[in-house]
Here is the input.
Amino acid sequence: MFGPLRRAVLGDQEIAGMVTALEVTGLSKSFGDARALENADLVLRQGEIHAIVGENGAGKSTLVKCLAGMVVPDAGDVRVRGAPLSFGNSRASREAGISTSFQELSLLSNLTVGENLLIAELPTRLGIVGRRRVARRAQEVLDEWEVPDLDPDMLVEDLPLSAKQRLETLRAMYVRPSLLILDEPTAALPDTDWLFAKIRELVHAGTTVLYISHKLGEIRELCDRGTVLRNGEVVGSFDDSNFDANSLISMMIGRSIELVFPARRHELPPAAPTVLQTRGMTVGTKLRGVDLDIREGEIVGVAALEGQGQRALFYGLAGAGPMTGGTVTIDGRPYRAKTPRAALNSGRGIALVPEERKIEGLFADLSTVQNITSTALGRVTSFGLVRGAAEVQLAAGAGADAQLPAEFLAREVGQLSGGNQQKTVLARTALSGARVLLMFDPTRGIDPSAKLEVYNMLRRASAEGIALVFYSTEIPELVGLSDRVVVLYNGRIAAELTGEAIREDHILAAAVGHGGEIADGPEQAK
Amino acid sequence: MTGLRRWLGRLSTGGTTRAALFLLIVLVVWDQRQIGGLTVRLIESYLVLATPLIVASIGVTLVIITREFDLSAAGVVTLVNVLMATSLQSLNPWLMVVVFVLLGAGIGLVNGVLVVYGKLPGIAVTLATLVIPQGLALIRLKTPGGIVPRTLVDALKTHATVPRALILILALAAAWLVFRRTRLGMYMFAIGKDEEALRLSGVSTRAVRISIFSIAGALYGFAGVLIALTTETGDANIGNAYLLSTFAAVAVGGTAFVGGTGSAIGSIFGALTLVAIPKVLFVLGISNWMVQVVTGIIILIAVLLGAIAARRAKDREMLSAHYADVSDESA
Here is the structure.
């Protein structure tokens, strides 16, 4: 959709596709026995936005790291505008004009925004990196790139995830590279307008972009062409003319599925008792008096733009964050949790599946078995010792329920793909016997088939009578899965939608602060 | 205004401030109980006595900030001390200092290369570079003795209006304030926090880690020179005490052993506190045998206070980071 404009800018040569910005030939890389990339070929034309799609573990991030000089491939050849790239040397990659925004975010939390932005080329005077000099230069960059919400002097650890993501992408873009690599740049970004506008500006100026994302909608909107990876191999390509989401998904997973939301198995009984009730729940100024009633087996979706109090709600309920006012009851009994462990134990339990699973939810160095049983060790302990066989049996059962392939049980969780880590968290939660399950953005950054399994897991949990509250940045998920959608705006419930009223446009309208109009007439909300 | 508030906030939670308070308490007690109070002479000799531990613990601090471990300080200190008293006596004494500092840097370089390129644990590598120099020192000088160049001793110990040792300590503090704002200094902190992130940011983390080990080694070498100047003799067993007291000084100085944070100035205060403890116990009439017990208790208190401050900071972080919305923070 962006093609004609650019073709007007570039010369005849480019139209003929003579100029290749990047040529990857026969690139292979294995980590131990695991094959990450197998004989991958890729050609990027000068000035195109080229998508790479594939499931988690398909080799996308390995490809990115080979290009960025972070990983040395076992075999293959990379040419940047005809010149061979020397591997395993981030400086060489940078000097070849490659700049990368990494999926796992490469920011230093104990440095400021400005220092992070300029980290590779910190400006010095007499050898000293002056605070004011850094702040001034960083402010110039932030102004030039229209990012008013970042303060150069702020410590990165004080930023919310979305701001970190924006900083990561900005750091890759502001040097105006000839090849820009963006690995899942919107995973934590609530809105893509700024990013897409800036990418297009860069492309106008001659930058070529390699864009890695799970979000097919974004790719359709932004990219000219794309390549599909599966198990480290290139299995197909597409462009504007033959873009079809369903065929892409089947290419990615190697079989055909429709990305549809699994239907509810049982109707929610009208008399289902209330499990979780909050009255006037308040967390500082972030959450200002929220009343919720979640019934047995009900799936309640929470929709909100970034920073409307959703985190305060979820973490507060789970005892992982503070609560400054209001009451919470479970099955009619008052409940107040100071720690996540207390939340699990009190009454019949609230379990939270947090975002950023790699950091918050799991013990990366322990085996998957140990992670699954970590909250239920009491069940397999005799005389203070954990019975190994019983632990494995318990974990295997829960893992199977969560569709986690058995071969992963013995591995360290840190080696698992994002989707399988998610299943590990789910299996653990199931074992903990929680009454209420809170899931904070459970499908962020996982691939379509793993998403489908998470959806199925939600449905199974609800069929077992668990009260489910989940927050998602993807509105179609809320529409497809929820019995009820609660929209938060500015720390308050802006709208509560049920049945036919659960529609993307209604949710969006309430999320941007036009909730009141929906009650009167949905059509006016536009 | 916000700058002042930030500064006050740092003061209330900073390990360096706590270390300064420890030192202040110790010095006040000493001054109160010392007959005739603390005289300039007394302070001067106390500062001289503290310089070797100060310099060595600054080296250890740098390595700990990069989330590594370095036991070699005691080994380098011993070897240099013995060589100062026995070798290169015909050389210009100042050139001698340079040579021994470079020797320390060389041992640090070996540490760094083995840890970074050999992918070996720092604690194991530096255990070897602790023991080997100590062994070499024993071969060189079996009983304490030797001659230390007079010029250098006088340079450190001669009475002056502003004590020479104080100038040295202030210069080290100033050097630290500059160093932590150099690229290398900033990368040192960044590595301790998240080495992989720094690597992905396009910085050669190997070079940084090796440089820090080398600088630490140079500081150990300099500390060895200073021991020779304070004791005016060579002793192959002198370093034994330094193995633990360098780490003790770092701990009392408020540098957490988690990497990514720390202050050499805190370690200066920590080292000064540790050196003052025997003196204070003496004026209090407490047996010298209690020194280790008291030192241990002070280390525990320092670490405990540090942990409490860290927990508080984490609570605040939870409140601000988890629930922060950038747009309304900056509005």
In short: The two ends of chain B are 17 Å apart (CA to CA). The first helix of chain B runs from residue 2 to 13. Chain B touches chain A at residues 178, 181-183, 186, 189-190, 193-194, 196-204, 260-261, 317-328, 330 (CB under 8 Å). DSSP finds 14 helices and no strands in chain B.
